[in-house]
Structure formats: C-alpha cells, structure tokens
Design brief:
By secondary structure, the protein is mostly beta strands. The chain has two domains: about 1-190, Jelly Rolls; about 190-285, Jelly Rolls. It has helices at about 70-75, 105-115, 175-180, and strands at about 1-5, 5-15, 35-40, 50-55, 65, 85-90, 95-100, 120-125, 130-135, 140-145, 145-155, 160-165, 190-195, 200-205, 205-215, 220-225, 230-240, 240-245, 250-255, 255-275, 280-285, 310. The strands form four sheets. Strands 1, 13, 14, 15, 16, 17, 18, 19, 20 and 21 form a ten-stranded antiparallel sheet that branches. It is globular.
C-alpha cells in the first residue's frame, strides 16, 4: 500500500530550455533542462512499471523509434517502450512527427537513414494544448521545438535514433531497422467521456491514460489498486494526507486515495497500468466540509479538451531522446 508525493529529477538535454517555469522550478545555472522525471520519494522502493515525465523543447528532438517488449527482451532488457504525450503548452506552429508519408521497404529505409532523407519522410502535424498523441513501440516519431509535454511511458530508456539534426550523437541504424514500422500512421483515437469527471484518452496494452476534472470543494475516492500516477494540471487540493497543486504528482498503488478538490477545483491526468479502464476508478464521497484543501492557482493548461491522436497501430514497441 502506498500514497506518495513524487520527487522530481531534472535532466539536462541539448534541446531543452533554460527556464522551464512555471512548469518546474529548478536551479540549472544556464544548463538547458529537457526532462523532469517524477520518481517515488523512497529510493529502496520497488521500481514502478511506468515513468511519468515532463518534456521541454527549444529545438527538435531526434527522429527515433523504440523497441517492443519482444525485441527488448531478446536483447536482455525487461520491456520495450510505448508512450503517450499530453500537450501542456505549444508555441504557434509547434509540431510533432508520427509515422512516415509512405510505406518503405527495408532497403529504402536503410537508404533514407544513410543519406539523411528520413528527415523528409516523417509526417509532421501541428499540435495544440490538450492534444494527446499515442505512440506505440515501433512507431518512428519526433517532437518539435516550442512544446511542453507530459509523457507517460513504459519504464524504459530504450531509444534508437535515426536522425539527430547534426548533434553528433550516436545513431542506431541497424537496431532501428529491426524494430521500426516503416509506413504511415493509420488511425486516430478520440477522447471518450466516461463520466462527467472522467475522460478516457488512451487505453493500450500497457497503460491507461485519463483526464480527471473535479468540481470545486468536492470529495472523491480514487481506487488505486493498480500502479497509478496522478499529475495535477490545474487547481489543487489534497490526495490522501498530501497537499497537491499544479505540476505536483502523486504515486499510489494497492490503496484508496481520498481526493479533495480545493476552491478552484482540480484537473489532473491519471495513468495506471493494465489493460482497459477501471470502471470504479473514481467514486464521489458524501458531502463534507472541505477546508483549505488546496492552493489556488491560475490555470496552466487550457481547459478545452481537443483531439487525441494515435501514432501507429503497430504493436512493436534503448538510450535517451
């Protein structure tokens, strides 16, 4: 049983930003921060199956692909990497790339990697706040500049770079060829309103991602039988014994979490392991006096919920972005 306020770990990346506020307050001394990982506060605690992080981009990331479970296990890794992105902030014209503009043979892909023309074959699409992109393992993808993204993924650092914009980092052509789906992304997934408070964003073989919208001064029971992460986007309140506000994250497992939304309500992402959404994930508690449960904050994310996009229907799922 566990209800924990996640600690954060800021990681420098060449494509990151010097000042990630208001999403994260760090003393980075001018070093670009590209990722902020949310981790369990106790180091001896078992490693979770999922990794929740924030991404900050001032430049485009590498064009890359991740292995699926079968390939990862064949080379001694515990699992592959499927991920989903929730767009928190997007500068005008910000884009992500998912899939290729045409089907390639292995020989054609090898040629495109050798001459760099793979950069002209990925399909870029504009994104806006609240968009969600599902990236199954095996999908060739990239993230452009000017974005802040909340990412949930299988806990793996397995990444194969196909193109890196001249940064002189290692590329992984043979591994990428072995795991990549070499064609277009074929379908989209739309948000599915489960209840007034719950919107299903992604439901895949490894995790489920939902958006939760709680009205001001309301009280709820969150059933966290599975490994569950909750990232506060707007508003605040309490989660179990913890005070939470925007950009805080809570880890819970094999427990029930009493959640009280503060005077400005609470908007959060909830991600949990397993297949299929949990029908009884959120249950409203009987009205009770709610004291200063949360720290009121101005919204950081637009309240509108737009489209959810899928990167690929392939079921193929090694290093950093």
């Amino acid at each position: 049983m566990a209800i924990e306020l996640a600690r954060t770990l800021a990681l420098p990346r060449p494509w990151g930003v010097v000042d990630p506020r208001p999403w994260h307050k760090v003393s980075n001394r001018g070093t670009p921060i590209g990722e902020v990982w949310y981790e369990r506060p106790s180091k001896p605690a078992p490693s979770p199956s999922l990794l929740l992080k924030l991404l900050f981009t001032s430049q485009s990331l590498s064009i890359q692909v991740h292995p699926d479970d079968a390939y990862a296990q064949s080379i001694g890794l515990p699992n592959g990497k499927t991920e989903a992105w929730y767009i928190l902030s997007a500068q005008p014209g910000a884009k992500v790339a998912v899939g290729l503009n045409r089907q390639l043979t292995e020989q054609q892909l090898r040629g495109a990697l050798a001459d760099g023309s793979i950069a002209d074959l990925v399909v870029w699409q504009a994104v806006s706040p609240d968009d969600v992109i599902y990236v199954p393992a095996g999908t060739i993808h990239a993230i452009g500049a000017g974005l802040v993204i909340a990412e949930i993924q299988q806990r793996s650092d397995a990444t194969y770079r196909l193109f890196d914009h001249g940064r002189q980092r290692e590329l992984h052509f043979e591994s990428a060829i072995a795991v990549a789906n070499t064609g277009p992304a074929h379908f989209q997934i739309r948000p599915n309103r489960l209840t007034d408070e719950r919107t299903l964003l992604v439901s895949g073989p490894h995790f489920v991602l939902e958006r939760i919208d709680l009205t001001p001064n309301s009280a709820w029971c969150l059933e966290a039988k599975r490994e569950t992460w909750m990232l506060i986007l707007n508003g605040g309140g309490t989660a179990g014994p913890l005070d939470v506000a925007a950009t805080d994250a809570v880890f819970a497992q094999s427990d029930r979490v009493e959640v009280h939304a503060g005077p400005s309500g609470m908007v959060a992402l909830a991600a949990y392991t397993g297949v299929g959404s949990v029908s009884h994930l959120l249950r409203r508690l009987k009205p009770a006096a709610v004291t200063e449960a949360g720290r009121s904050q101005q919204p950081l994310v637009s309240p509108s919920l737009t489209r959810t996009k899928s990167a690929s229907e392939g079921q193929r799922m090694e290093t950093t972005q």
